[in-house]
Amino acid sequence: MVYLDDGTTTDEADDGPEVANEFGFTKATGQIRMMALKIRELIDTKFEIFDRKAGEKRPVTYSDMTVLVPTKNQNLDVLDVFREMDIPIVVNGAESYFQTTEISVMMSLLQVIDNPHQDIPLAAVLRSPLYNVDENGLALIRTQAMTEDFYTAVQALANNALTIAVAGVSETKVNETIAAVQRFLVDLERFRALAVQNQIVDLLWQIYNTTGWLDYVGGLPSGPQRQANLHALYERAAAYQKSSFVGLYQFINYVTQLQSQDKDLGEADANVASDSVSLMTIHHSKGLEFPIVFVLNSTRRMISQRETMGDILLDAEAGAGMDYIDLDHHLKLPTPQREFVKQARVRGAFAEQLRVLYVALTRAEQHLFMVGAYDSVKALWDKWSLAEAGTEWMLPEWARLEGKSFMDLMGMALMRHPKAPELASVLTAYDDKDVIDFGEIRTKAPKQPFNFGLEIVNGADLRALVDAYQAMPLSEATSEKTGATPDGIVNDWRSVLQFDYQFDEATRATAYQSVSEIKRLFEDPDLAAGRGLVDGRIQADEFAGLRFTDETLPEPTFMQEAETRISSAAIGTATHLVMQRVDLSAGAPSQADLRALVADLVDQELIEDKVAHLISLSKIERFFTNSPLGKQMVAHADSLQREVQFSLLLDADRLYKDFQGSEKVLIHGIIDGYFQVDDEVWLFDYKTDRVTPETAAETLTQRYSGQLNVYAQALVAMGKPMPRRFIYAFSAEKIIALD
Fold first, then answer.
1. How far is it, in rounded angstroms, from Cα 337 to Cα 44?
2. CA nearest to 570, candidates 617, 622, 612
3. What's the rounded mean pLDDT across residues 478-499?
4. Phi/psi at 591 (5° precision)
5. Interatomic CA distance for residues 406 and 300, integer angstroms
6. pLDDT tens, position by position, 558-603
């Protein structure tokens, strides 16, 4: 399978960026599209293969097919095309996810945030597009603190004058490097401040926003897939954050263990079906066999030019070779020794690639597809026509060495097959140079007969095939579903557009409510006096979602952070925390005990120091020593439960008017506490609202009785008896019984 790309490149290394032609294909994406169309054709036509286990023929499935690639460079392109054409695919080889540029850079940055005194991750981050410090810049940094770690050198360059200048590094480059490391240190300080809060998700998103990394990778080849990889890292961090392990170090250690065990964050995709095409490298496929194999990018140059470059060439057998330098005439001349070593290295690399080709060819049990791209039929025939040099079974060495790719070698071999001239019509269809001529090629009949064919398309034809495929499913699906006249189709559309869903209210009803949002529904009936008997449930509204909300809006952040004013909510939260943490095992706490507890909470940064001074420790002490509720709490400390989280399922029609169906709504809340007194359960809730002793009972009962009724229902659902309910008003130092 050959894709013809009217480009200008021939045998150059194809690892660099490619430019799409007028039809939207590069050499890489053109052959991938061609392969994807073939896979869909095999599936749609129910192409048959022989099932060894069943001992009979059956239609092919996706899992029968495997795509082998020489390197992982095209994996992202393959994933993009296959997903667009709705072909399920799974990538085998766990290291592919972590070795993508976008993920490896992020993991290096997370390692630096956790501990900046790590030279390799730090150098990787600075060298990356995030800060774009080149090798000269890294050398400049290193010279500023030769005996210290690299982070110390970074700080030295950012904060002090140059200690050592580097020859060849211009003043402009010095200034650019200093600016880059200063920006890095500012970012690092911000990231580390966020990391200590153990919010990995927030940290990742802050990195994406601050550095623009998510947007940057979106502009690279296969940008959407690279962005999806970063989103996957974010989502996995969110899932990890919900586990019992917290902290950036733990997350990095978790990822490191995955890598060491050949696992991958990207492999656990719930949407990947078991019936999927496999994508793996040729090396990874050793020892495996598959019914159908596609060898992708088989026109990739086998031997890298790096094998023959460098001032000195070394080979284990041939020794060392170097050019001759004529200082008098300023000439650099090749030497016989260097050419000898060069040829030895080429032959060694060529032999290794032949072994790789053998592995690829022998993975297929029944059908093998070689997929590649040439610039033109002439470029193809220039290689394949070297078959005319062979008179024996083995082509001469010089002809084999002229083959630069797997497909070059395969083409030379197949052109000697007796049926090869039958391919002339396929080749001449795109032969605008009239180069195809089988007259000089001597055929050789194979010892074991086999069949082969040739498919060639250029950019225009491939675009037509892709457009035809994309247009096909809609028309076919429409005709298959309706099986009727156009009038029937129109009628079907009308029935869909005019469909009246029976449970319309459920589409706008929330599945979750907090206790504070629904407390009004659970007030005692006599509290409605003066307001009239009103159904408090939400009325279905055509334009609004069905959800209870708080009557008051949260305090804006700028008011919360005001230095001159501490909100009553902050004081109330701190008071609740003290009541939650106070130790009652030794009896009622003294003020000294409470002061020590508050100091400890301040040290743990759970309470701000400016808020701690506003907590009324004397009132807390009097609650435990003077109030009957506090005394009972101390006396029954062994059964005391505080800050009890609960979830409760309520019928939706208890919250929403005219609700149809039997759905439930999840109610979630936190009970301040309860304890056992003989056969009774006492439920209590602290309130720090500013009320007077005279108005406390009426005001707090009206505000919070519904909330405590929900708490009581939750305890009953836990298997407890109906509890006695108490509100304690700290400002008025008064107990309010709701029995």
1. 58
2. 612
3. 55
4. -65, -35
5. 8
6. 665 544 567 788 888 889 899 989 999 889 999 999 999 999 999 9
pLDDT, average across residues 632-649: 89
Q: Is the entire prediction scored with pTM above 0.70?
A: no
Residues 6 or more apart whose CB falls under 8 angstroms from that of 620 comprise 575, 578, 579, 582, 589, 594, 730
735 within 8 A of 726, measured Cβ to Cβ: yes
Token readout for 323 is 């050019």
What distance in Å separates the CA atoms of residue 23 and residue 464, rounded to the nearest whole number?
9
CB 480 within 8 A of CB 442: no
Please name each of the domains of the chain with its CATH number.
95-260 (1.10.486.10), 376-454 (no CATH), 557-737 (3.90.320.10)
Residues 6+ apart with CB under 8 A from 294: 35, 38, 39, 65, 66, 67, 68, 369, 371
Helix (H, G, I), strand (E, B) or coil at 377: helix
Residue 315 carries which side chain, given as an amino acid letter?
A: D
Contact 106, 210 (CB under 8 A): no
> Where residue 480 falls among pLDDT bands split at 50, 70, 90?
very low
The pLDDT of residue 632? 92
State pLDDT tens for residues 572-582. 888 989 998 99
Please write down the HEC assignment for all residues of 163-212.
CCCCCCCCHHHHHHHHHHHHHHHHHHHHHHHHHCCCCHHHHHHHHHHHHC
Confidence band of 483 (pLDDT split at 50, 70, 90): very low
Give the tens place of pLDDT for each residue, 652-663. 777 776 677 778
Distance CA 51, CA 347 (A): 41
Q: What angle do CA 108, 114, 115 make, to 5 degrees?
A: 90
Maximum separation of any 2 CA atoms in the chain, in Å:
114
Query: How many other C-beta atoms can be found within 10 angstroms of the C-beta atom of residue 230?
Result: 21
Window from 206-220, 489-503, 543-557, 721-735 with minimum mean pLDDT: 543-557
SS (H, E, C) 310-342: CCEEEECCCEEEECEEECCCCEEECCHHHHHHH
Cα-based torsion angle of the residue sequence 622, 625, 628, 630 in order, rounded to the nearest 10 degrees: 80
Q: Which CB contacts under 8 angstroms, 24+ apart, belong to 251-254?
A: 251/110, 251/200, 252/107, 252/110, 252/111, 252/114
Q: Which structure tokens are listed for 349?
A: 């690399």
**Which residues fall within 8 angstroms of residue 38, CB to CB, at 6 or more apart?**
1, 294, 369, 455
Looking at the DSSP bridge assignments, the partners of residue 687 are 729
